[in-house]
Amino acid sequence: MSNDRVARRPLDSDATRRAARRWWDSDAEDYQREHGAFLGDADFVWCPEGLRESDARLLGDVAGRRILEVGCGAASCSRWLARQGARPVAFDLSARMLGQARAGARRSGTDVPLVQADALALPFADGAFELAVTAFGAIPFVADSARLMREVHRVLAPGGRFVFAVTHPMRWIFLDDPGERGLVAVHSYFDRTPYVEYDERGVPSYAEQHRTLGDRIRELVGAGFVLDDLIEPEWPAGHEQLWGQWSPLRGRLFPGTAIYVAHR
Fold it and tell me: What does R_g of the chain's alpha carbons equal in angstroms?
């Protein structure tokens, strides 16, 4: 994409929401074509490092638990949870991504309830769930992630847990390049200005937000959560697959993912 269609500049919540819906609606098929085999039709992969919930056990025993998948995409995580005896509900802003979720249900033979919803205005009752999870869903793509945390806190029952994976904020220091160019620091870690891409008419078509580790913890605590753990998965030996800016070269030097574990 040409430099005149990429910028770091403020973007309000409505424009950010429109850009997210537009991007994921247009990219849904390509995203699944590129990453679907890695993610599986009914598997719970937390991050490009390949950490699976079946190994990490960050959620504990999920059998019988009411679980909300936030920004589910194709909902492979929810289908895995359903196979473990959980009672998941999966939501996403993008209708086309939910279409991919329905296709995954047909392929896998495992169906879960799907809802089209905005993460900043969840259509669920207070205390409706015991767990909320997301693997790179919704959080980086809303302008007011503190509000998202408050919404998740609202729909969790007392004692409920929120476990989510997002891009490690160190990523924002570097270019999105899996090679050696991506090892040179070019941006300030403390610059929270969103990354925005524009179409040929100058309309935002993609927007991603940056928060530092401290920002994210303050959002959680401000919403009423207690932080239990912060996990930075290491790049495993023998894992050679590239995923965007994630690569073995970068992964051996600095973290690409941060996983937060918190309870209400």
Answer: 18
Q: Give the separation between CA 77 and CA 129, rounded to whole angstroms.
A: 16
Q: Considering only CA atoms, which of 190, 168, 148 is closest in space to residue 255? A: 168
Please report, as a single letter, which amino acid is at residue 28. A
Contact 9, 194 (CB under 8 A): yes
DSSP readout, 102-134? HHHHHHHT----EEE--TTS--S-TT-EEEEEE
Please, which pLDDT band fits residue 4 given cuts at 50, 70 and 90? low
- Is the confidence at residue 3, as pLDDT, over 90? no
* Angle of the 76-83 helix axis to the 95-108 helix axis, nearest 10: 40
Residues 181, 184, 189: CA angle, nearest 5 degrees = 130
Question: Mind listing the pLDDT tens digit for each residue in 158-205?
Answer: 999 999 999 999 999 999 999 999 999 999 999 999 999 999 999 999
- In the structure encoding, which two tokens stand for residue 130, read together? 């015991």
At residue 135, φ and ψ (nearest 5 deg) are -110, 90
